[in-house]
Amino acid sequence: MDEADSLDADRVIPHNQVEGRSSKIRNWSGFWLLGLCNNFAYVVMLSAAHDILTKQQSDNSTTPTPPSLNGDFEVRNSSNSTRYDCNPVSTAVVLLADILPSLVIKLSATFYIHHVPYGFRVLFCVGATVTSFLLVSFSTTMTMSILGVVFASMGSGLGELSFLSLTAFFSSDVLEGWGSGTGGAGVAGALMYSALTQAGLSPPDTLLTMLLVPAAMLLSYFLLLAFPPMFPQWRRLREAGPMGRGGAEERRRLMDEREEEEEEEEESEQQEKGPREDGASGPLSCTEKMRAIKMILKFVLPLGTVYYAEYFINQGLLELLYFPKSTMTHAEQYRWYQTLYQVGVLVSRSSLRCVKIRNLWALALLQIVNTVFLLSAVYFQFLPAPWLVFIIVLYEGLLGGAAYVNTFYFISKETGDREREFAMAAASVGDTLGIALAALTAFPAHSYFCSL
């Protein structure tokens, strides 16, 4: 009888394993959709940057037009006579509005955001995204357009910081889902904007159709994710009662599962972690936070370098790589540059299961080479057609996406259970800081080339 009971018990195990796999699929899908929705507005604003500036300049130099962005972006900027067909203001203006609020949130929030429950953070992100689409869609002035971009940045910045922290409560595969989803946001946002506007839909109508995205974020977070027990959805960690200790225990249990999975898949790569501090619970001290920041600098610095180089290209050089003999207009060329860049990002951010790259400085060096080459191409104008730029921009996106997803993968593996949630949030500053510096240095580059 004992043997029979033992056999019956053994038969139950596969059923439990199926349930576990079901939860993992839900969580992977949930984080994929959260990554998609969180970065969507940010990408759309960058894809629309050329249109926003062209339209506002048109409104400022002609008689007033109806209070919305119209679809007439297919003419050259008659206000300049340079060989680059420059906008009077660089698209880096939109990039700054799209990244500085996010940078401010990430630099400051890592030290106080644990007091704000995750549920309220998600509601704020959704509200900011809705406000962004509405403001830019019904914009009548440059100030109103830029304010809309600022709201997109606030929602995206808080969302990235919060969802990366949230991965500490789940198994390791959700990070792959998040990375792939953020890459998908780039393709979906840029491709949808480019395709719909090129098909004849006006930019305001295009933006209004994208209000479905924040609704999808709400559904993904509250209905799709399978949260661990005692997760403090609407309470601060300190007020969550046993969550202070229970959350740490839950994270430790999940980390044990991570190690078992990774030992099976990566026997030669896995390194044993040091002993855990079982008594550790509650918020990190300031000393612990500074120690965690010092530990992740080896990943954050190359990530920031990669993003500095690629966004200097995207918002400082691509609008100057104009080929008047092409069948595409200047605006169309710019949109497809952005779209192909995002395709590269999607492919590389979805590749974590296939290839892992720990030497992030190699990716940074390759991205700097791209920057130097395209800077030379802008100055000497030796490229004959836009399709060559298309190939380079696709490769640029591959490097950027690989740097992003590998940075957070190795941080999640090489930080302790107690510091992981904070470290993931703090590391999100790296790419944002690089982008902000790129926007600032893109201004003098734009001014110089447009004066030639």
Explain what you see:
With 452 residues, this protein is mostly helical. It has helices at 2-47, 49-61, 92-109, 118-137, 142-166, 173-198, 203-209, 212-224, 243-265, 286-317, 330-349, 360-380, 386-414, 417-427, 429-450.
Structure described in brief:
Helices cover 72% and strands 0% of the residues. By secondary structure, it is an all-alpha fold.
Structural class: mainly alpha
Quaternary state, please?
single chain
Cα(first) to Cα(last) distance is 91 Å
- Count of alpha and pi helical runs: 15
Which regions are unreliable across 5 or more consecutive residues at pLDDT < 50? Answer: 3-19, 63-76, 239-247, 268-280
The ordered string of helix (H) and strand (E) elements is HHHHHHHHHHHHHHH
Helix content: over 70%
